[in-house]
Specification:
Largest interface: A-C, 116 and 115 residues
Strand content of chain A: under 5%
Radius of gyration of chain B: 25 Å
Helix content of chain B: 40-55%
Chains: A mainly alpha, B alpha/beta, C mainly alpha
Structural class of chain A: mainly alpha
Number of domains of chain B: 2
Shape of chain A: globular
Number of strands of chain A: 0
Helix content of chain A: over 70%
CATH topology of the largest domain in chain B: D-Maltodextrin-Binding Protein, domain 2
Oligomer: heterotrimer
CATH architecture of chain A: Orthogonal Bundle
Radius of gyration of chain A: 23 Å
């Protein structure tokens, strides 16, 4: 298993020198990838195209990708509406805080799971795994009451702590797996020099765990960014709403603002895509260790 | 580093983490203080919360404008609008009532009233009206549960029949059908026009089952029928209901209903009509402007829902309301009722009806568009000639009743059971809920 | 993995006996308490915000008419009996299993297929990065928009029917989401589309971690592409596959919004799953006690899964 701790180094990132007999295979792989990309991306392309249409053209038959009414109106409407921009700001604040706090809390718990034997470890472990099995919708009413009692209703903190409850179990599992792949000798060596466990964690383990933290961080970010039900229930005023609620607000009682909904979700996805682009090198490496040795 | 220092540092870090959590829970209380609406204990200034889905449905700033006017007229009362998506308003009210954080004034749908009243979430408006000495003679209607009013419909969206004039003409139908036979005939002719045109559209989605109310039961009401008898469900041994479902089954068998019914929602229905793929639909007046904006070339007219052949009585016309109620735990019921009074007053109600393109809940109010717009004028005449009919309003678990019925109805249309069995099964399910 | 953690420093002989013993026991105590310190923020958060509501739901499930009635009465297991005697509950269990198992298998198959292609040695890194971006797209959208998008695409007059119809593959009239025969397959398909990227990324990471020399050795033994896949790739990925499959299973059984917003559990009840069943009990029938009982049953079923998961994890340690 420890061989897997250094993904990327043995990885096939470096392409083999193309040999003539590989041309056929290369064509086959590219053809396969293109087919797969159609499955993955065509629906999203349709969403993008719809965001440039007039509402009336969304349901036109025969359907057309590019329509006569092509316009950026939907984007202009969203980007010039301070209320909607506030939704984006709220989503960023919440998702980023959740990501950072989840990581902060999870690495400590994961360190305990990875490096210590203690009474109740297995029980706690079962609990941490099984809490993610609770369907959130069933908890809505008691949870809401609790949030009100704790005076967290309609606050960023309420949302942030709620999402941490969702993301922590997975983050702990993944980080424990990741730490398990790192040789114990590393932190033992620091401790020999008289440093405490925290020093070992922060100075030694965390710097080499950045890939793992990035992968967990992106997952966490996605969860917090896209969540709807609790975001709606736990907030009350317009200045606390997040993007998914903004999208749902466009689904009216009588009619939908189709193009604005599509535009808003495209606008929401772009920053996440940029984030992924920026971090994907780490991400691809980081998932391995965690997933292999959960 | 000494052992002691190490421990201290460990404690410090976990302490910081815990403090961060604790700090989170103590911070940001300012905004939730007003959650229960007990803003000004000194009686100086009262902050009312008004939870509704109306603001996002209206032109930007329009509803806030009305509230500003109210605040001007009532110094010392401020209104905070809490707006959410229509589709989840109900869950939010339920959760809010359970946690005691309900807004003082809430927007209501007739289908929810009975349940909220039973839950003790909304206040008895009859007694508030008595306390403040309100004269309710101007109210077009009140929704009552057990003899007491819990909701007042502020504006009503009626559901007449829309017909696509061009399609009808092309199919050789000279005037919008007025009887069921004429309707079935017109539907057949329109469907025969080409491959992708249908006579009628019937949304039966189980997520939003109001199609059962607006598109199915409306046929019964239009012929003066009822699905209830002495307030109890009467789906079986009821010629009015049997006639309706058999009639729709006939349309279904003729293949004149646009595909996709079983998961179609009201919003989809309108898109089919707007794009000229269906000739006729029963739909909310709220859509007139949506359709005009989306397809300015479409000419359509509005008429009463066809009745049974030979029926000459008044036609019931289905409607959906933006209703209003007061939270049972509101600390300011009197101020909350002032807001309702304001919204129901002749001038405000006219104005709100105008911007919402709905019919007023105040009998005196006349919205502008009725005078200025031919279509709305026609609709208003239909409305006045008939009577507003929505038997689901005020029933217990009304939405579940629609869903029960919808499920059995789908099964019958799908050929898994006879219409008679569907009615029997729905009747049984309804009786269990009453 | 060895777990003995004896500290080598404890045996330093320069301190006097009782003091040393005290220091040793203090050190041991501290050592014993340290992991709890590390776990405390997690513990506080999960106990306050997760365990409390779960306990409350369990409490609700034993009472009659909670929420709607101010003074609910204790009724024992009546609500459970009510749920278990409802035939729709079993339909929901069956649909949930079909939905979940097909989703997990397809997530795995598609995820692995895409990961293998993205890991192909015949392509440049830039090409692979480009495709990787395309392939994670479905992951980026909130459920509401995924539901709306697919309702548009699968509409009887939608683009999918148009393409199928104009190429002659079908008559272009299929009512994907509203046909009793196709609805469950259609929502499962949507869930597969929206959920495979996470699986794919994990498998891709796993593939990149497989040491090259294993393949070289297999080649020396004369193994073909298929034999290499079976004897090297699959065994190496096995831990990831099992963990991901279990997690995915748990997550997919909870899927609510996607099904609710596309079909609402219909037509009739062919797409009724446990989450929509529970939701309807709570929010359209206001039977919060019965809904809580149903939720607890779901929780128990999930805990059986979680138990297997942890056992699998222990077995590997």
């Amino acid at each position: 298993m420890t061989t897997l701790a250094t993904p990327g180094r043995t990885a096939s990132g470096v392409p083999l020198r193309p040999q003539p007999k590989h041309t056929g295979k290369k064509v086959a792989v590219i053809a396969g990838l293109v087919v797969g990309a159609c499955f993955a991306a065509l629906p999203v392309l349709w969403m993008l195209a719809s965001s440039f249409k007039q509402n009336s053209e969304i349901f036109a038959y025969p359907p057309r990708l590019i329509t006569q009414g092509f316009s950026f109106d939907a984007y202009t409407t969203i980007l010039t509406d301070p209320t909607k921009l506030r939704f984006f700001l709220n989503s960023y604040v919440v998702a980023l805080s959740v990501t950072l706090l989840t990581l902060l809390v999870a690495v400590h718990a994961a360190y305990a799971f990875s490096r210590y034997e203690f009474w109740g470890k297995k029980t706690i472990n079962v609990i941490v795994v099984s809490v993610q099995a609770v369907p959130p919708i069933t908890l809505l009413i008691p949870y809401f009451g609790l949030v009100v009692v704790l005076k967290l209703y309609n606050t960023y903190q309420g949302l942030i702590l709620t999402y941490m409850v969702f993301t922590l179990p997975y983050a702990i599992i993944m980080m424990t797996g990741y730490f398990n792949t790192l040789p114990r000798e590393l932190d033992e060596a620091v401790k020999m020099d008289g440093a405490g466990p925290l020093t070992a964690l922060w100075r030694i383990l965390l710097p080499i765990s950045i890939p793992g933290m990035v992968s967990v961080g992106i997952y966490t970010f996605m969860i917090a960014w896209n969540e709807f039900l609790f975001a709606l229930t736990l907030t009350r005023t317009e200045d606390m709403r997040t993007v998914p609620i903004g999208i749902q607000l466009l689904m009216g009682q009588h009619s939908y603002e189709w193009n604005e909904m599509m535009a808003m979700s495209i606008l929401g996805a772009v920053p996440v895509l940029v984030l992924f682009l920026f971090f994907q090198r780490y991400f691809i490496g980081g998932m391995t260790a965690g997933a292999v040795k959960i | 580093m000494s052992n002691g220092a190490r421990v201290r540092r460990l404690v410090a870090v976990t302490g910081v983490a815990t403090l961060a959590l604790a700090g989170c829970s103590s911070g940001g209380t300012s905004s939730s203080d007003t959650a229960t609406g007990d803003g000004g204990s000194g009686g100086e200034s009262v902050a009312l919360e008004f939870q509704q889905w109306w603001e996002p449905e209206l032109p930007d700033g329009a509803f806030r404008g009305l509230m500003d006017k109210f605040e001007e007229e009532n110094p010392g009362i401020t209104v905070e609008l809490l707006s959410g998506p229509y589709s989840s308003t109900k869950e939010q009210v339920v959760a809010g009532a359970a946690a005691g954080t309900m807004a003082d004034v809430v927007g209501l749908d007739g289908a929810w009233v009975s349940d909220f009243a039973k839950q003790g979430a909304i206040a008895d408006l009859s007694s508030i009206m008595k306390d403040v000495g309100y004269d309710d003679s101007q109210l077009a209607s009140q929704v009552q549960v057990g003899g007491a009013t819990y909701m007042i419909p502020v504006v009503n969206f009626v559901y007449p029949m829309f017909t696509n004039d061009a399609l009808l003409e092309k199919a050789g139908v000279s005037a919008p059908p007025s009887t069921r036979t004429e309707f079935a005939d017109a539907a057949k002719k329109i469907t025969a026009l080409d491959d992708n045109t249908y006579g009628w559209v019937l949304p039966l989605s189980l997520e939003a089952p109001n199609g059962v109310q607006n598109d199915v039961m409306s046929w019964t009401w239009a012929s003066g029928g009822s699905m209830l008898k002495d307030g109890q469900p009467a789906l079986t041994d009821n010629p009015a209901v049997t006639g309706t479902v058999d009639y729709i089954q006939g349309l279904w068998d003729d293949g004149v209903i646009a595909p996709g019914s079983f998961t179609m929602k009201e919003q989809d229905k309108v898109e089919e009509f707007t794009n000229g793929r269906v000739g006729m639909m029963i739909d909310s007046l709220a859509h007139v402007n949506t359709i005009r904006e989306a397809n300015p070339d479409l000419t359509f007219s509005i008429s009463a829902i066809p009745a049974e052949d030979g029926y000459a009585g008044e036609r019931g016309i289905p409607y959906a309301s933006w209703g209003i109620g007061v939270a049972a735990n509101s600390a300011h019921p009197a101020e909350a009722f002032k807001l309702i009074e304001f919204l129901m007053s002749e001038s405000t109600n006219s104005e709100l009806s105008s911007i919402a393109h709905a019919f007023p809940g105040n009998t005196e109010a006349v919205p502008d568009f009725v005078k200025d717009d031919e279509l709305f004028g026609a609709a208003f005449d239909i409305y006045k000639a008939g009577y507003p009919a929505n038997e689901f309003t005020g029933l217990p678990v009304a939405e579940q009743l629609m869903r029960d019925f919808g499920e059995q109805f789908q099964k019958a249309l799908d050929g898994q059971q006879s219409m008679q069995d569907a009615l029997t099964a729905a009747q049984k399910a309804w009786e269990a809920e009453f | 993995m060895s777990t003995s953690q004896t500290s080598p420093r404890a045996a330093t002989p320069t301190v006097t006996e009782p003091a040393a013993r005290r220091a040793r026991s203090r050190a041991r105590l501290r050592r014993r308490l340290t992991p709890y310190g590390f776990l405390s923020p997690t513990g506080v958060l999960l106990i306050v915000l997760m365990a409390t509501p779960i306990v409350m739901v369990v409490g609700y499930s034993l009472m009659d008419q909670v929420i709607t009635n101010k003074n609910p009465a204790f009724v024992g297991f009546d609500n459970y009996a009510e749920v278990l005697s409802d035939p729709v509950f079993y339909t929901a269990v069956r649909n949930t299993l079909v939905f979940t198992i097909s989703s997990v298998i397809a997530h795995f198959a598609i995820g692995l297929g895409f990961a293998l292609m993205l890991n192909s040695p015949y392509l440049s890194n830039r090409t692979k990065a480009g495709f990787r971006m395309l392939y994670i797209l479905p992951w980026l959208f909130t459920v509401a928009i995924i539901a709306v998008l697919w309702r548009l695409l699968l509409n009887p007059n939608g683009v999918i029917n148009y393409i199928l119809g104009s190429t002659g593959l079908t008559d272009g009239r299929t009512e994907w989401l509203s046909g009793t025969g196709t609805a469950l397959a259609a929502v499962t398909f949507i869930n597969i589309w929206s959920g495979y990227p996470f699986f794919m990324i994990s498998l891709l990471a796993g593939l990149q971690g497989i040491p090259r020399d294993l393949y070289e050795a297999a080649k020396v033994d004369g193994a073909g592409v298929w034999a290499q896949f079976r004897n090297v790739t699959l065994p190496q990925l096995r831990p990831i596959i099992i963990s991901m499959a279990l997690l995915d299973f748990i997550w997919t059984t909870q899927q609510f919004a996607l099904i609710w917003m596309t079909t609402g559990g219909g037509p009739i009840n062919v797409t009724e799953v446990l989450s929509t069943f529970t939701y309807k009990l709570a929010f359209t029938q206001y039977e919060f006690s019965v809904a809580s009982a149903s939720a607890v049953l779901v929780l128990l079923m999930s805990m059986v899964l979680a138990f297997f998961y942890v056992r699998h994890q222990k077995a590997r340690d």
